[in-house]
Amino acid sequence: IFVLGDAANNIYFLREGRVKITTLREDGHELVHKIIGPGEIFGDVSTILGIPRTTSAQVLEASLQCEVRRQDFESLLIGYPEMSLQLLKCVGRRLKKAEAQLLNVVCNDVSTRVREALIDLVTLEPSARSDQPVRIGITQQDLANLIGASRQQTWQVLKELEDSSVLRLTYRSILVTAPHKLRNQQSPERHMDQQL
Known about the structure:
Blueprint: E1 10-16, E2 19-24, E3 30-36, E4 41-42, H1 44-49, E5 56-59, E6 64-69, H2 70-79, H3 81-107, H4 110-124, E7 134-136, H5 140-147, H6 151-163, E8 167-170, E9 173-176, H7 179-184, H8 188-195
Antiparallel strand pairs: 1-4, 1-6, 2-3, 2-5, 7-9, 8-9
Helix pairs in contact: 2-3, 4-5, 5-6
């Protein structure tokens, strides 16, 4: 959709599908900031600030997104001030999530990070139910990049979860066969966070 360094002239609203937001580390390896699902906006910060893109956005599956030019978006915000408040809340939620993600990388082991990332990815699936299997279209490498771990460490945790009948590893996806088991094993801090 766009790459790091592109001119930021548009804001995007994802209607269907999933999009991966990434950047490159100094060593050239990809770092996944987040994976977004339907109903989310992206590309807004660089566009609003009028700076080149600081991330890249890539579709992970067939997607439908709406593109709004910067000038049109600014006119909408001026014409409908309540939209400014909603945008501020959206940016605030993303900041809170980024802070939680940083804390997660610093304080939690790879096993906890994998389980929590899978819980987040399951919730992005529109038809997800805790008692039904859910297929997540993500590679093991993308999952590792998302949680700040090596592919090998991530694979080891995924293999343990597979051996525990929580999931099944498939080509370019993970079939979570027992989503409720992921939730039952999550950290106490995350459980408290979700209740607030």
